[in-house]
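User
New here, help please:
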Amino acid sequence: MLYFIQQDTIAQTAQDTAAVSEEKTLSIFDLLLSGGIAGQIIILILFILLFAAVYIYFERLFAIKSASQVDKNFMHQIKDSVSNGNIESAKMRCSQADNPVARLTEKGISRIGSPLEDINTAIENAGRLEVYKLEKNVSILATIAGAAPMIGFLGTVIGMVIAFHELATSSGQAQMGLLAEGIYTAMTTTVAGLIVGIIAYIGYNHLVVKTDKVVHQMEATAVDFLDILNEPA
């Protein structure tokens, strides 16, 4: 009899230990939803910002990647056409390429016969428009990178206000559940805001680097085209 009692005690202890361990386990989803209404609203806003940041990043990444694809023989073909006086052939080659480098070159070709300073000015103006197209919506990533942590900190402040308000109104006998809700709001929104901000910041800087490479490519092409026009006939 004593043996069975000991076995029941051991089994009950094991069940209690398992229950305690299960209670201490908290999934990410439960953690995000355990911060009360204020925390859930802020988490929802951060998720929307995260979705916008990821969408803008990949949309711009593919656009910039497409813009950077230039045929290595492009300028050689343009040089041959311009040197032979076949301007229409050069324009047709540019229209077939359909990228920022080709559009800049086409703008310069359309100004052939004008002073070099005017051609250079036309290319620079076209270049500004191309850079603006490449940087479309990229500034939103920078805004999200700065705003997301601030929104997370707002949730931190709201959570701490909830916790201290509960302490102030309970005469020192606050329910631990309500205090924990305020603390969860403070911690989860901070973590979520920092994660969204870091992702947006990394994405923004990566797109800036990619855009700079395309800009340098356009500048090199403009120089090559002006060199072609400066060559003696």
Observations:
- Residues 74-134 form one domain.
- The two ends are 114 Å apart (CA to CA).
